[in-house]
Every structure is written in C-alpha cells, then in structure tokens.
Amino acid sequence: MSAEQSKSVGSAISIKGVVKEFTRGGQTLRVLDSLDLHVPEGSFEALMGPSGSGKSTLLNLIAGLDKPTSGEITVAGARLDKMSDAEITAWRAANVGIVFQSYNLLPVLTALENVELPLLLHKMTSAERKKRAQIALDIVGLSDRMGHYPRMLSGGQEQRVAIARAIVNDPKVIIGDEPTGDLDRNSADEILKLFEQLNRELGKTIIMVTHDPEAAERATVIRRLNKGVLA
Amino acid sequence: MIPYQYNLRSIWVRRVTAIITVLGVALVTAVLAAALMLAAGVKKSVSVGGQDDVAIIMRAGATGELESGVDESAVGLVLSQPGLAQENGKPIGGGEIVVVVALDKLGAIGFSNVNMRGYSDQSLKLRPNLKLVEGALPKPGTDEAMVGRGILGRFKGLTLGDQISVRKNRPLRIVGVFEDGGSGAESEIWADVVTVRAAFGRQSGVSVVRARLASAGGIEAFRAVIESDKRLGLKVKSEPDFLAAQSEGLSKFLTIMGFIVSLFFSLGAIIGATITMHAAVAHRTREIGTLRALGFSRYAILMGFLMEALVMTVTGGAIGLLAALALSSTKISMMNPATWSELVFALAPSTQAFVTAGLFSVGMGLLGGFLPAVRASRISPLAALRS
Amino acid sequence: MNLPGLAVRNIYRNPVRLALTVAGVAVALLTFVTLRTAVMSWDEAKNYTLKDRLVTRHKVTFVMDLPKNYADDVRDLKGADGKPLIRASTFLNWFGGKDPAHENDFFATIAADHTTFLTVYDEIKIPDDQLKAFNETRNGAVVGDLLAAKFNWKVGDNVTLESPIFGARENGEPWAFKIVGLYSTTSKAVDRLTFYFRWDYMNDGVRAEAKDRVGWIASRSVDAARAAEVTAAIDKRFDDADTQTLAQDEATFFQGFMGMVSSVLAIMSYLSYIILAILGLILANAISMSVRERTNEYASMKAIGFRAKTLASLILTESTLIALAGAIPGVILSYLIVDVALGDFLEYNLANFFPVFRVKFWTYAEAVAAATVIGLFAGIVPALTVARLNVVENLRRVA
Ligand SMILES: Nc1ncnc2c1ncn2[C@@H]1O[C@H](COP(=O)(O)OP(=O)(O)O)[C@@H](O)[C@H]1O
Ligand SMILES: [Mg+2]
Question: C175 and C97 in contact (C-beta within 8 Å)?
Fold first, then answer.
C-alpha cells in the first residue's frame, strides 16, 4: 500500500487546493491559499498559528459551516464543496461534533437536555434519546449533573457538557475551536484528557485549534498555519 | 445629564423594536386625533355660517326645529315686532318648516332620516352663503326640491333629476343642488314651504321663524318683547347659540367615545413601549453601570431613559397626527340625535385636537418609560465590572 | 425534551417581558371583544324579534302619524280567500315624556291601547290584580320593573310628565299618571325600561287636530311564514288613501334602524381592526426582541445540524404560544368585563340602545383565532432572519 493510497483511503479529512477568500468593502482577502491537508482516521491533531492566520476559517470549512472559494474538501467520505446547504446540514448532524470556545449551551435547558438536543435531529424514541444522552454525559464524567442548568455549572463542566453534546451522535470527526481558551489550567487539562480518551478509546478523529503549547502537546500531530499556508 | 446622543444612538441600534413601538403610538394617536377631529367637524359643520344678527324664534319647550311649532297667527305677530331689519318697508324674515323623511341609504343597509326644510324667498336672504351649484332653484308652489351637496347621492332618490315620494302621486323632484359654505343645510332637502306644509299636513303653522335683526345687539330687546308674551309660548335664540346647541350632543358623544377607545388602545401602546424600554435597559446593564461608575447620578440615568421613551412616543405621536390630518378630507355621514337626521361633515383639524393628542403621546411615553427608567436608575456601578 | 418544549422554555426566559406581552394581548383582545360585541349586539337583538309581529307606520316619516281608523282596518284585514290575516292588533303613540325629577335620564314613554296591547306583546307580564287596576284606571301606567327600580317608583305612586310633543293637556292640566303596575318580560324583544300608559287618556288630552291619530300599529299575523304577503296586503289596503303606510315584520323594521347607526357601527369595525394591528405590533416587538437576543444560540443549533426550517418553526411555535398565552386571559377578562359586568349594566340601563349586549361564542373564537394568526405572522420576520442566519458570522462574534 503506497503512502498516497493510505492517505485517501484512511483519510477522515482530505483537503486539496482549497482557497478561501473573503470580500469586504470591495477588498478581497485571501485567507487560505491552495491549502492541502490530510487527516488520517483516528488522528488527534492540534492546529496552531497566530491570530488571524485562518485557523477558524479552516475549521469552519471542515465542519461544513462555510464553503471554500475553490478546492476540494472531503470529510468522513463526503465531498462538502459539492453538496447543497441542506445536504451539508443533514450530513453535519450525523458526522461532526463541534465544541466551541464559549460552550454555547442553551441556558434554558438542563445539561441532559442540552446533550439530547442533537438527537432531536434523528428519529428516535425519547427514552432512547435520554439513554444516549446519559451515556454521553457519563463519558464526560458528569452523570451527577444531568439536571443542572448551565448557569449552575463551572466553565470546565459546561465545556464537558458541550463535548458530550458533540459526541452524542457518535460522529466520526470532532472539531474544537480553542475549546480550552476560556478555561483555567486544571479545567483545560480535564478537557484535554477527555479528548485523548475519545481519541484513544472511541477512535474519534479530532482536530483542535489551540494557542496553548501544553494543550497542543497532548495531540498526536501538531500543525502550524501561517498566513493561510500550512507549515 | 447623559449626553442625549447616547440615548438617540441606542434607539437607532434597536431600531426594529423602536419602529414597532413608534407605529403603535402612532396608531393610538391617530385614533384619538381623528375622534377629536370628528367632534370638531360636527361642531364646525353645524355652526358654520351662524350669524349674530339672525334670530330664531321657536316654541319655548323645544330643543330643536323638529320639535318646535309656531302657529300661523304667531308668525305675523313675531315679524311685526320692532327691532327687525327692514327691506322695502317689510321685515326680513319668515317661517320655515322642518320635517324628516326616512330614506333608504345607498351603500349601507337600512334607512335613515333626512331633514327636509320648507323655505321661502325670505329664507334665502337669511343665508348669504347659499348658492346653487347644479340645476335650478325650485319654482315656488311646485313639487320641486333642491338637495344639499353633502347628502347628494347618499340616499335613494337624492340625485339631480331623481325624485322622492312624500305623498301619493306627488313626488318631489330634485331639480337643483346647493352648497352653503359647508353648513348643516348641505345635509338637507329644501322645497317650497307651502309644498312641504301641504305634504305633511302642517297647515296650522311652521316650525320656526327666522328673522334678521336690525343689529346683532338688538337681540336682548327683541327677546324681551317675544318672551314676555306668555300666551305665545315662544323663545328667541341667536343663530350661533342655537346651532351650537344642535352640535353639542353628537360632538360630546364623539369626544367621549374617542377618549374611552383611545384609553384602551393606549394601554397596548404603553405596554409596547415598556417592553421596548425594558429590553433596552436589560441589555445595557453593563453600560449603565459604567455610566454610574463614571459619576452619572441615578437621576441622570432616570431622565436619560425617560427621554429615550419620550423620543419614541413623541415621534409616534407626530406620525399619528399626520395620519389623522391626511384623513381630514374624508366625509362622514352620521345621525345627529339633536335633529334626528343625518349630518354629513368632514373631519376638522383643530388646535385642540392636536394639542390633546400630542399630550396623549407624551403621556404614553412617560407611563411606558417610567418603570424601566426606574429600573435603570437602580443599577449599581458594580455592574460595570461584571461580564 | 422536544422542540415545542424548548419553545415553551424560551417563552419563560424573560418573565417580565412575558407578563407585559400577555397583559398587552389580553387588553387588546378585551378591547376587540368589546368593539365586536357592540357591533354585533344589533344583529343579535334582531334574533329576538318575532317574524309574525308586524309594524305599520307612516310611509314617509316618523314625525307623522296615522288616522286611528287605520288600526281598525289593519285588524280586520282579510286575505283573498276571505280568511283573516291578522290575529291581534294594537296601536301606540310615542309620547316623548320627560320627568322633571329625572331631567337628564332618557326613558321611553308610550301610549298604548290597553285593551289590545298585551295580545300583541304577549312577552309582557303584569300580575293579574295590577292588570285589573290598569283597566280600571284611566290615567294608569304600567312601568318596566327595571325603570321603576332605577327611579325608585312603586305601585301607587303618582308621576307627572311633560311632553314637548303634545304640550300640556287640552284643559290646561298637567299629564298626571298613577303607576298601577310593574311589568317584566319573558323575552328580550321588549325592554323593561318603558313607561306605558293608556292611549285613551292621551287621546283625551291632546289638541283637537291630534285626536284620534296613532303613531304606529303593531299586529300579529296569523302565520309567521306569510309575513311578506301580509305586510304587502296592509300597504295595498291604504295605497289609494291620502296617507300611505309602510308595514314591515319586526325583524325588517328593526334592521331598518341599522341605517341610523351604520356609520357608528362602521367606525367601530375599523377600530376593531386597528386594535388587532396594535396587538400585532406588541407581539412582533416581543418576539423579534427575544430572537435577537438569542441569535448565538440559534447559530450554535444550526452548527449542530438543525435545519433552517426546524429553527423557523421553533420561533413560529414560540410566537404563536405567546399569543395564545395572552388570548386565554383575554377571553376570561372579556367574559368577566364585557359579558357579565358591561352586559348587565347596558341591558339594565340602556336597553333602548342595547337590548342585548352579550359576547357571542363566535366573538371569543374570533378573538382567539385572530390572536393565534397574528402571533404566527409576528414570528415570520424573526423566523426568516434566523433561517437565513450565517453561522460562521455569528459564531465569530463570540469566538
Ligand atoms: N466572514 C468573514 N468575513 C471577512 N473576513 C473574515 C471572515 N472570517 C474571517 N475573516 C478574516 O480572515 C482572517 C482569518 O480569520 P480566522 O480564521 O478567524 O483567524 P484565526 O481563527 O486564525 O484567528 C482574518 O483576517 C479575519 O479577519
Ligand atoms: Mg479563531
């Protein structure tokens, strides 16, 4: 099996010649320039780089939240650049889990209900939904906080709920945009441990943006993005 | 004080909400202003053209021309009294008879009553503004009639060339259309006094006598003479006084209804303003705390937010008034209980209507803005530090 | 947890706003119901009229009366087959009486032929002994029980009225009446606020030229289904006379009066639409504000994979539910204030204008339906905004 083959067959994420430009006030800003990236299945990667280098933009493309100006993006076997918005939305519901820097939990829902939320997108009995959400919360170590509302949780706990929400659908790929950015050292460590565990025990492909070199050390691969180009 | 730009800009930031609030206030103000303009319109149309030197002589107990009756014998007696203006050695004045006829409404179900006035050539002398706009004057002694421009075409039969029946085989033919400076007469049908008396079996007398006084100041002396004769049982009113009384009931009714309705409507608008201001305050807790930390007083914050509410409601008020003003050419036909018959009138813009409605919009701002402003003024400077 | 559940929870997030919105919707619906009921009360009153009761009046104007012999002619009217068309008939005059002691209170005073009156208005109930007294007392009057309560009149009281229409009695004496009875009614077709007295007493007192004239004739036809035929027969009977008549069944007669109030009714209809517009503004304001505050949450939900359609329906559900939350207290408030309080007040005190002032079931239904539909529409713009929400843009604001 050649190196080239293993890349495309075993790739969770495959990006070829992707260009992303933003046009603002008549000016075109090229944020990503002919970018290639291959993330093998089961890899845990950290993405670093100065602010404004295009890290979030790249993650958004991988999550199907945004579309490239040109180039190919294949994630979990789907050609995102060729899909319609509706298709991407449906695909996203099943294939990616997203963890935000600021958690973005719904304040009116309990921890358990927040985790259940993505399951509403799938046909499932409410009992089954609940069971799966409980399992996800158990994985992140919060089975004792299921009835708590976000405001009753610490930042680290909120982020763990967000991770449970990201994995409850059993997606192949998990992406996190500075998931530990708002957290203190200890909480950040717990989150990173969780990511490692998800990667090792459940085989999730994880790609995570971070500014924190310690966090990046936990990943199996560290990539650096500078001015739209991967180093 | 907080610089006013701060509040103005924050209205702009929340412009969708602000526009919705402004529209609500505009609707309420327009309703109130329109109601007051209706009331003013009734007054204006009933009393326009009232002349100080014209006296109306009617039965002592009567409140309107319809109820009044003056015997034939009394008419001559009244006109022979001193104090009346003369022309060719004869007093200017004469009897008029007022009856109502029930006619089918056009464009609405049912019928309504229309005033019919039997007049003589003397009546025309007492109404200098009355002029024919179409057709011809009815010939005396015939079954011809003319119709006021106001009710023209609003009832079955009231068009030029058409006819209305008042007696078997003796229809009144409409041969003319007249106007009278927008007065109540424009809502009447006029026919020869002899014709109307015959048609309505009123041979014994007329409804009222109208006469021109030698001078406007002479009315007291004239009244003293007429009213002192108890056998006549008559009273004397100056035309403006008489007309004012004719519009009182309806204009009062419209004013009171307008206020009641607007009061209920304004509750909605006030709640709308409160919702908007409440959100404006809730969202700026940190900003307000910062202002307090910078040294602005509670009072300054209170006033700033009240002003923010006022800017919205006063803008709404102004839009509402403009909308009401746009209605001012609309003609309305309504039954005037004082005459038992339909009166056609236009909404009349009046200073009073504008001032009242304007103050109403200010009131809505103060009421709607008060609680949120108090809440804002209670925010602690420490709020600035919270995230 | 399910999506409607989430909508419900979102509603409770801002209790102050929820309370204000609910109050606003409730007050607006109360106003709406009041206006609609006032407009409909005229229609409603028509339902109490009798199809076999006919009213015959002067064709041209209400200010003119009819010769008394017309009443006899109507009563004796026969059809082509020689069979009677009328089974009961009476005649009445509007007296326009005013009580100097109650100068500003309007009440109806009607002179009625006491011998036939109750055969035509059989909804009117007078105790037997009082009816006997009415028949035996020439200046006797029977008064509606509500009117008597209002003016504190009792059987046996003497009342003197003035009439601007007829002036004093011919002999110079005042119009002095003795209240010999109080009546109640079994139907809302007749109000309980009228002062009825004997027609013969009135006829004694009026001037010579007003004698033996009747204001209008009220009759019962032998068959309600033949109302049109009978009224036509009445008018035809007097077609060649000096004075023509206009005979109508009670419902048509009543409907005719709509013309006098049609502009007021039209204005009230317009106003009822304006209050719905205000209701819409209140709801649109509240919902657009809530959605704006939660933009980031909707963005995250979109990122998770919720479709635009789902989010839009979430918002529409919320706005409709808020409208309903206000509609329920609005209906309860309307029932208590309009149906119970205002209805009783108007039916007792202003029965001449509002014989029936009760909220119809359909008016409640209309109010709730209007609120629901308006609630749905109020959510459309915010729902579209969220549906079009650009996830990347909105998440960027936070991250
Ligand atoms: N939606 C957008 N419109 C315009 N410019 C954007 C947009 N998103 C990102 N950018 C620009 O692209 C560049 C990269 O942004 P981003 O990917 O957020 O950087 P990073 O996450 O690495 O800090 C920045 O200069 C940013 O201003
Ligand atoms: Mg970033």
Answer: yes
